[in-house]
Design brief:
Blueprint lengths: L1 H14 L12 H12 L5 H39 L1 H12 L1
């Protein structure tokens, strides 16, 4: 009995045409993305404002830190050059010319 079923399936498979690979319908991917975006919760304007303020604040902190470090390095170099008596005299001579 089982052989009859298998023979019948094999005969049906032999009669079937070659199957063309299935392609996505036109616009299917766009609809999927649109439905996915519609399902995500929308943030209100306050959340976007807070994010922008946070990013801007972080940028100001980074720039301020870089400026403070640079200023500290320059003041250290000036202090070191004035610590030496010969450097003071040399800078005074250079300022005259």
């Amino acid at each position: 009995m089982k052989n009859e079923h298998i023979d019948r399936l094999l005969r049906s498979a032999a009669q079937a045409d070659e199957e063309v690979p299935a392609a996505m319908p036109f616009g299917f991917d766009t609809r999927v993305i649109a439905l996915w975006r519609a399902g995500t919760p929308k943030a209100n304007g306050v959340v976007r404002l807070i994010r922008r303020v946070a990013v801007l604040s972080a940028a100001v902190i980074v720039v301020s830190t870089i400026a403070a470090v640079r200023e500290a390095n320059q003041s250290r170099e000036i202090r070191e050059s004035f610590a030496n008596e010969f450097a003071i005299a040399d800078s005074a001579i250079q300022d005259e010319f």
